[in-house]
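Blinded run. Sample ID left blank on purpose so nobody reads anything into the name before looking at the predicted structure. Input follows.
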Amino acid sequence: MLCSVLLFSCSKEKESTVPNVPVNLRLDLDDPANFQLNSVGGSMTIIGGNRGIIVYRRGLNEYSAIERTCSYQSTDTCAYVSIDSTISTVGCYCCGSRFQLLDGAPIKGPANASLRLYQTNLINRYLYIYN
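Blinded prediction complete.
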């Protein structure tokens, strides 16, 4: 019993309250509509997930895909994140929380849970985003 108390009390980050919806998307990176992802550091918002997905090109063959629904009071209609002008973080204008664009980790509260992160897989010119 003591081990289970210690195990659960060590976690600083709470589990996300964002609804888990099925995601299975394919982006054609040669499509001109996806030109923002042609260079490292590029990002764009796409339809999918709960309130949209932010796709970010981390490296030559590395991408991140994070849910736009804020992890703090996720049922509020204004609880969604947008990319900052610095293109390094995303922020929720409803609660003021800030998250890393690379992995959705919280960097400023009140949110203390990460944004939902989707899996990505690059095959030839197609980027697959799924959970």
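Unblinding after everyone has recorded impressions. Strands lie at 24-28, 43-46, 53-57, 63-67, 81-83, 89-92, 98-100, 106-108, 117-123, 126-130.
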